[in-house]
UniProtKB/TrEMBL annotation:
Biased segments, Basic and acidic residues type: 43-60
Biased composition regions of type Pro residues, renumbered to the chain: 295-304
Species in which this protein is naturally found: Lojkania enalia
Residue segments, region Disordered: 1-60, 73-112, 273-304
Biased composition (Polar residues): 20-42
Name by which UniProt lists this protein: Tafazzin
Length: 611
């Protein structure tokens, strides 16, 4: 057998000797040692200055090394602190689980993962955060989309313009403060789009009348500013607040002309047409030394921006006003909106001049009379007299309307209140509508001929040009079990068929790989939003997102909730049939009524809300 090889190790004597041991050496041996170099001296100084290990530090290291780990279950029972896992070594790669293997090559770009059906959770979170689906809505208002279809104001998503506008709105307060001399120079299309982005992404109550005036400053105040003369759309959806009210908007829509100066005395009268300027008399000093020294010039503050004026305004959105809604102010504002063609009053309260007096009554000797125009039980009694009267007064001023948005309004019955002959044929006829008002002349019992007009708006008169009315409730129930438990009816059957077609359309769109980067008025976006119990028509601003968050528990689609939705849908159908009957009787234009969903087949029911 071969002999085992035993390696021979040579032991070298260490050259370093601690300074404490060098004192015991003789002087002769130290004299014979070679002198140290500079590097050796530096290393020696470093070793001498290093802190020595103490007994506490040595015990701590020994305890960490010799400590035994406790299972997680026992650690929770004994209430012991969790032990942090050791950090991975730099440059090491994490091993995949057994049976799995990562895909070869580099990781896929984020832009590719956004359009994949099985995208990771963190990518979906980024999409929700960027597209505005986290804590807020991800779609513009109906009027902004209709305006974009005609004039192409909203940018594509994603794009550089979209990113810039969204960043500007998220930092609007700082932007108005530090960039107030550059905001007015934005082009008119970007100003209109910026208002729509403010209604969608800006924080609550961040836009005030001062920043509104700064955005629309004219060329006399700031050089190269575009002004407000060419603005066609004012998208104030969810922007009305205590600092930007309808009264402030009325100042911008009414042009005030300066009045001529009054002549106080007859001494100022003259036949000379040339302007005469009177300068104050200045006392003349006797010598140069007696003249007063001029005061040093103080910096003049910048003048406040003037109130903008919108002579070309034809489209106005006042949706989601919140507590700022005031029908009294809107009636006075409507006197300056005679050229308006598109109006959005989505989610406005019931028309009333005295909304705070709904529960107040006045007691007299004979009976108890409601203090306001409507009492607490007006809705149950189907009494829409005050609401119809306010709408009639509004129609007399806005006689150029062609597009009306009443999404989320529960008072649509007041649009046709008083036309019992046409409305009685439908399922939504009310018991309180006992009198038929017609514009035709009638003959009384005594032979007098007099004319009566309906208490509501005249659809063949002031509002004869309206071609589109949006009566969408703001949400659509998607619980098919709750719908199937309802009594048999036309609307539940149509809704079930529509929901099933929507499910098939959504699956088909997801299979085709359509991403989330499409515009909000596309068919695929409206299909995707129905899984939250509402279509994109209700996902239009921040107020709806606060009222109806993505939590499905908020949408408690119990039997009572679905029944209420069906009853309101029946009322909307009855109002639409009455409008069509009135237009047919007066030989007027056809009205397109949008319910937010269509009982038709295919994707034709996914209308974008256009006229």
């Amino acid at each position: 057998m071969p002999k085992k090889h035993t390696p021979a190790y040579s032991r070298t004597k260490p050259s370093y000797i601690h300074p404490s041991l060098q004192t015991f050496k003789s002087s002769s041996s130290s004299a014979q040692a070679a002198p140290q170099t500079v590097n050796e001296r530096i290393q020696q100084l470093r070793r001498e200055q290093a802190p020595r290990t103490t007994s506490e530090r040595r015990d701590e290291v020994i305890e960490v090394v010799t400590r035994r780990t406790v299972p997680p279950e026992l650690r929770r029972i004994l209430q012991m602190a969790e032990v942090d896992a050791p950090p991975p070594k730099p440059g090491s790669r994490t091993r995949p689980r057994a049976g799995t293997r990562p895909p070869p090559g580099p990781a896929a770009p984020t832009s590719w993962l956004r359009s994949i059906r099985n995208a990771p959770d963190y990518i979906r979170g980024l999409n929700r955060k960027w597209m505005g689906e986290e804590g807020r809505v991800g779609s513009f208002g109906p009027l902004a989309r209709v305006h974009d279809d005609e004039f192409k104001r909203l940018p594509q998503i994603p794009s550089l313009v979209h990113s810039c506008l969204k960043t500007l709105t998220l930092h609007w307060e700082e932007l108005v403060e530090y960039e107030q001399y550059y905001l007015p120079t934005l082009p008119i299309p970007l100003k209109e789009a910026l208002l729509s982005y403010l209604s969608l992404y800006a924080p609550r109550d961040c836009v005030d009348f001062k920043s509104f005036k700064i955005l629309f400053s004219n060329d006399k105040e700031i050089e190269n500013s575009t002004g407000s003369e060419e603005i066609r759309l004012l998208d104030l959806t969810n922007l009305l607040n205590p600092h930007l009210t309808l009264t402030d908007l009325q100042k911008s829509l009414s042009r005030s002309f300066p009045s001529a100066p009054l002549i106080k005395t007859l001494k100022t009268l003259s036949l000379d047409t040339s302007p005469v300027t009177q300068h104050p008399s200045v006392p003349i000093a006797e010598s140069w030394d007696d003249e007063p020294e001029p005061e040093p010039g103080l910096p003049q503050p910048s003048p406040a921006p003037s109130v903008p004026f919108f002579p070309s305004l034809t489209r106005l959105s006042l949706a989601h006003p919140g507590a700022i809604a005031s029908w009294t102010t809107l009636l006075s504002l409507s006197a300056n909106l005679r050229t308006l063609t598109h109006l959005s009053l989505a989610y406005w309260p019931t028309p009333s001049i005295t909304p705070n007096a709904a529960t107040t009554s006045m007691i007299s000797k004979h009976s108890t009379v409601a203090l306001g125009g409507s009492h607490f039980y007006s809705r149950l009694d189907d009494d829409w007299a005050e609401a119809a009267n306010i709408l009639r007064r509004l129609s007399l001023n806005m006689y150029s309307l062609r597009w009306l948005d009443l999404e989320g309004c529960t008072w649509v019955r007041a649009l046709v209140w008083g036309h019992s002959e046409e409305l009685g044929a439908g399922p939504g006829a009310g018991a309180g509508d006992n009198t038929r008002f017609d514009a035709a002349e009638r003959e009384g019992e005594e032979g007098w001929i007099y004319a009566q007009a309906p208490p509501g708006p005249d659809w063949n008169g002031a509002w004869c040009q309206i071609e589109y009315v949006n009566l969408f409730q703001g949400w659509i129930p998607v619980d098919q079990r709750a719908i199937m438990r309802m009594p048999a009816g036309v609307i539940p059957v149509q809704l079930l068929g529509w929901l099933r077609r929507m499910e098939r359309a959504r699956e088909r769109i997801e299979e085709e790989g359509v991403g989330d980067g499409l515009k909000s008025n596309s068919v695929s976006q409206r299909v995707k939003n129905t899984r939250f119990g509402r279509t994109a028509g209700s996902l239009r601003n921040n107020a709806i997102a606060a009222r109806f968050p993505h939590d499905e528990s908020i949408f408690n689609e119990a039997g009572a909730t679905v029944n209420t939705w069906v009853e309101r849908e029946k009322t909307a159908r009855a109002v639409a049939s009455t409008l069509l009957a009135l237009r047919a009787k007066g030989k007027g234009k056809w009205i397109c009524v949008d319910y937010g969903w269509e009982p038709g087949s295919g994707d034709a029911g996914l209308r974008s809300g256009g006229a």
